[in-house]
Amino acid sequence: MTIPWHARSAAETATELGSDARLGLTRAEAATRLAANGPNEIRREERRSALTILVQQFASLVIWVLIGAALVSLALGEVVDGSAILAIIALNALVGFAQEYRSERAVAALARLAAPAARVVRDGASVLVPAREVVRGDILVLDAGDLVAADARLIDAASLRANEASLTGESEPVEKNPALLEPITPLADRHNSVFLGTSIANGSGRAVVTATGMQTEVGGIAKLLETATRDETPLQRRLDHVARRLVWASLAIVVLVFALGLARGLAPFELLMTGVSLAVAAIPEGLPAVVTLALALGVERMVRRNALVRRLSAVETLGSTEVICTDKTGTLTVGTMTVRKIVAAGEVFRVTGEGYATSGAILFDGLAEPGTARAGLEALMWAAAACNDAELVPRGADSEAVGDPTEAALLVAAAKIGIQRRDIDRDSPRLATLPFDSDRKRMTVVRRRGGAPIAAVKGAPEVVLERCTHVRTARGTEPLDAARREGIRKYVALLARDALRVLAFAERRLDPLQSEAEVERELTFLGVAGLQDPPRSDARDAVARCQRAGIRTVMITGDHPDTARAIAAELGVLGAGDELVLGSELEKLDDESLADRVQRISVYARVTAGHKLRIVRAWKARGAVVAMTGDGVNDAPALREASIGVAMGRTGTEVAKEAADMVITDDKFSSIVAAVEEGRGIFDNIRKTLGYLLGGNAAELAVMLLATLFGTSLPLLPVQLLWINLVTDGLPALALATDPIGPDVLARPPRRADSPFADRRLLLSILTTATLTTGVTFGTFVFELRDGADLATARNAAFSVLVFAELLRAFGARSDTRPIWELGFFSNLRLFAVVAVSFSLQLVIHHYTLMETLFKTEPITMAQCAGWIGLGAVPFAGQEVQKLLARRIPQRLGARNA
Fold it and tell me: What is the predicted pLDDT for the residue at 69?
């Protein structure tokens, strides 16, 4: 097996690559290698053309059924009906096209990660070259602020730290040094290497390039991204299922009517036209418009709740989500290092607030009187701000850090008790600095304070403690004896056990004549600060809401396992019996074993992009609808593979955003839960609308079929059917799509991805209302004829009863379980307004001459109107009775069992 570069010495690596660590490559050799191996670029995947995206909007079976219905309508002379269906289809396609036009840019964004230029050594001189011209064997010159142009093995480093969060998920800059590593060292722990697309946080160094372009770690992610696939959404599968059922139902209607007519001796052509007309009437042509409107309104509501949807159908997919695989850094946590606890003068202080905002406070959490420890706290925080090279730049209510994130966190904590670096710089000018490095593990700044020099020291607790001879207590400065040293070590261990990064602080009053070597001796120990990227304040409640909604939350991070365990336990993600698995353990599991075990694992640590992709695929192999959140380059393949990919808007890389279906603008996990709530509400609205449309269409079909079966004249004329479709199907259905989200959507488990739109409860509701509507409509028609009315009057009665029944039924269709007095007539004002207007229009066509002629209607009396409305209320009343019975039967069964 080939020894990896991180397991070889820098000299061996340079020799193997035919380079010189001091002189680099010659220009001629670099040009030869560039010609042989190609430019240092990420390969772009073939992008879908605009035409391809537009054509794919017509891939749904329900769309082709509607196109067929429109063509039949046009062939039968129903120009208005056919044109309306085609217009709805076109609008649906255009909205979908607009949403998906920019969805295929993930690999293109990866290519833009490469630094535009890089400094390399050629012919012994440092030169700036385009990043695409960097080749294997080049010697990279690295400085703070640089983007790394390729994967490289370090030759030397001075206080070098790299920000690798986008690649590995590590929440803080990683210290780099050229020391040799074991061959099996995970990517996040390869401290002797730097990688394409990461950045240098501070320090400097040199490195020999070991991989360029598609051979880099980022290139490997690009290859994974090409293998990731997007499946049909649950909504698309359900709509296609409905379309197939409607196709077979339509064919059955044609065959049935044709057979009945032949048995009665009717002309075959007339029978065919009647059957086809009824089949067209069976298709809810308003469904695509309703679905599009429901999704579009959901997108609008999600924007108000900090979620931007890039793929329209993804909105409903959220409602089916069973598992959320979430990144830790920046999603469940704040994404910035924060001081969480301080131990000063022997007492404990708790720090509130998130990120770089200075609006939090430092609260006394110890046992003594707060005032006795205050002076010790102020001394520690003064040292933390004085021994510091970072800066905070105000950005509204927040701040932006310039420099090391850990040092910035210390400045924020100091500002919470009124200690500002600018005041220290003004009143206590800096005299000397002993910088931090990986060998010293400490930093010292000497400042003039009160006319005398004072040294402020910070560093690793064990390093600082061994240089201290005194300690600051609530009673003042006292000797640091063995017992006190042991006590300090114990509370340092307690903080470390909580996965806090611990820094110690000390000071010393100096004699102006003291040498630099004496500055860091005989120090006075001030205390320690525990830092962490803390959980977001609303994340624990959001995780709990997911659990109540039957959604599993899984944390996937490249961070250290101890940190991942502590955060997961604090948020409730890691419970009793749940497992934490390292990326190295995943390597030993095949895909089948992982799929068997995945349900028991709640936390993954030290994982790579390939691991994340495998985890998502393992959940999908179990049939789960998986949401994946992330912000880094390493998240992109899993974001695309997931049922719905969710990228972070603030901290997310462009790669992650382009691979995702949705972007959370505030980076909060709680916003993802809010989006799930919206998704469930949208599905409910689409489902109730489908039930309303199918119930109405079934009633229209049944009325016409009964007339054919019993040999009566048709109760409804084609133009009246068109009016019914417009007034009772189109407008109320659109209003139902805007119904407010129910309060219980997150109190029930997620829907199975393979569950049908129309479950038993909805089918029973459709059957009940269709039967009652058919009964009152056809019954009214037959009664009028037997009572001596002419055919026009009987049709008027049946026509109006059917319209009134459908309009009133819209109120009951808002819920299968909650009666109208719980919902309220006015809680959906759009629906109330639509029904009121439609009632008025129905009356108008009976009393306006032009409309009477067009729709073959005649004036009606107040008594007739009241009677027909009363008959039309019967299906609505039946719906409400059905809801009450559905509630009482389980209650009685429960009481009987008790």
Answer: 67
